[in-house]
Write a structure and sequence with these properties.
Radius of gyration: 17 Å
Number of domains: 2
Order of helices and strands: HEHEEHE
Largest sheet: 2 strands, parallel
CATH topology of the largest domain: Rossmann fold
Number of strands: 4
Strand content: 5-15%
CATH class of the largest domain: Alpha Beta
Strand order of the largest sheet: 1-2
Structural class: alpha/beta
Family: Belongs to the short-chain dehydrogenases/reductases (SDR) family.
Helix content: 40-55%
CATH superfamily of the largest domain: NAD(P)-binding Rossmann-like Domain
Number of helices: 3
Oligomer: single chain
Pfam families: adh_short
Keywords: Oxidoreductase
Organism: Chitinophaga filiformis
Shape: globular
Protein name: SDR family oxidoreductase
CATH architecture of the largest domain: 3-Layer(aba) Sandwich
Length: 122
């Protein structure tokens, strides 16, 4: 684990989600708004070799809890979504193949791994 990797993960998974709502609330109506954060089951049940990632997602969970209390008086809601096991570019650091990953997480999934795909809206 390097300091550079630590900062990259925390900047991506915590700093970005920390700064974004501070700007977004300026655009909420008088009735409030909604903030949805993305977390992971790893925040509550970390596995070996996931300490950094798990720590970033635990930070998101705590931010969600605190913000929900801080923004409740403004009529705003703050929630977290934990989408399940997703294939992403960081998996190459831990798994050799998607098959190995699928075998490892089979008990945590609905029978398949999630895969992000880009959808263009017009």
């Amino acid at each position: 684990m390097t300091e550079e990797k630590f900062h990259r993960h925390f900047n991506t998974n915590v700093l970005g989600p920390f700064l974004t709502p501070q700007q977004a609330i300026n655009y909420f109506s008088k009735e409030g708004g909604n903030i949805i954060n993305i977390s992971s089951g790893e925040s509550e049940h970390p596995e070996a070799e996931t300490s950094l990632y798990s720590a970033t997602k635990a930070a998101i969970d705590v931010l969600t809890q605190a913000w929900s209390k801080e923004l409740a008086g403004r009529g705003s809601r703050v929630n977290t979504v934990a989408p399940g096991v997703m294939v992403n570019e960081g998996d190459g650091e831990t798994f050799i193949s998607e098959d190995e990953m699928e075998t490892h997480y089979r008990h945590d999934t609905v029978g398949r791994l999630g895969r992000a795909r880009r959808i263009l809206l017009r």
